Amino acid sequence: MRARTPALKAMTAAEKGELLDALLTDQPALRDRVEALAAARMSAGDRGAVAEEVESVLRSLDIDQLNGRAGYRRGVGYVEPGEAADELLDEALLPFLDDMSRRGTLGMTTAAAECAVGILDGLYRCRDGGSESLLEYTPDYGIERASDVVARCRALGVDLPVDDLVELLPEWDAVLPPRGHMRDGRSAR
Q1: Burial of 24 (0-12, 13-18, 19+ CB in 10 A)
Q2: CB–CB of 52/122 below 8 Å?
Q3: Closest Cα partner for 103 from 146, 60, 45?
Q4: Alpha carbon of 109 to those of 1, 82, 156: distances in Å?
Q5: Cα–Cα distance, 109 to 89 (Å, whole number)
Q6: Residue 65 buriedness (CB in 10 A; 0-12 / 13-18 / 19+)
Q7: What is the dihedral of CA 15, 17, 22, 25, to 10 degrees?
Q8: What average pLDDT does this structure show over 89-108?
Q9: For position 186, what pLDDT does the model report?
Q10: What's residue 185's pLDDT?
């Protein structure tokens, strides 16, 4: 006889989310505990893990994925391979940017800064492009998006640890905030 898999393990993430919402509606006393667990999880950040994941995701997109995006597209016209590569890479990077923004919006600025540093480091690791990936079609992708990450942090009020970034991104000091503006993750006053 085949062992039964618990239903909870078989559920999708969306179904689990719906189940949690229903549980919190039925038992409001759990809300504070769940909120504390959520805040603890969201406030943690591992820049190294984020950097590795960003690099992996961006490098894993291969040239074959351009087929549906580059060239003549009905109703759009001709799309350059570099433009199509940018679109695909941006779609892959978006969940990381959203994660950073969510944390910054919640006031978890340290976690947002750690996430941003991880994104920047991951982009930096991809600066050489490399063949057989979409990065070869858009050689400036990393540094262009690094500027966007720094601008998003500024808009969110997230101070970046400039000294750490100077060490991690030695060739990109042009995109970093001036050293006198932010120091060790805090604005110089």
Answers
A1: middle
A2: yes
A3: 45
A4: 52, 34, 8
A5: 26
A6: middle
A7: -170
A8: 95
A9: 41
A10: 40
The answer, yes or no, to whether residue 180 has pLDDT greater than 60, is no
Residue with tokens 């910054």: 104
What is the end-to-end Cα distance of the chain in Å, rounded? 70
Name the token pair of 147.
């500027």
Chain-centre distance for alpha carbon 83:
20
Reference 134, options 71, 80, 58, 67; nearest CA is 58
Residue 88 · residue 65 · CB < 8 Å: yes
Q: Is residue 181 pLDDT above 60, yes or no?
A: no
Quote the pTM value: 0.80
The C-alpha atoms of residue 43 and residue 48 are separated, in whole angstroms, by 15
In whole angstroms, what separates CA 160 from the centre of its chain? 15
Tokens for 154, please give them: 């500024």
- Using 50, 70 and 90 to split pLDDT, how confident is the model at 43? confident
Q: Per-domain residue ranges for the chain?
A: 45-187
For the cut 50, the answer to whether the pLDDT of residue 133 exceeds it is: yes
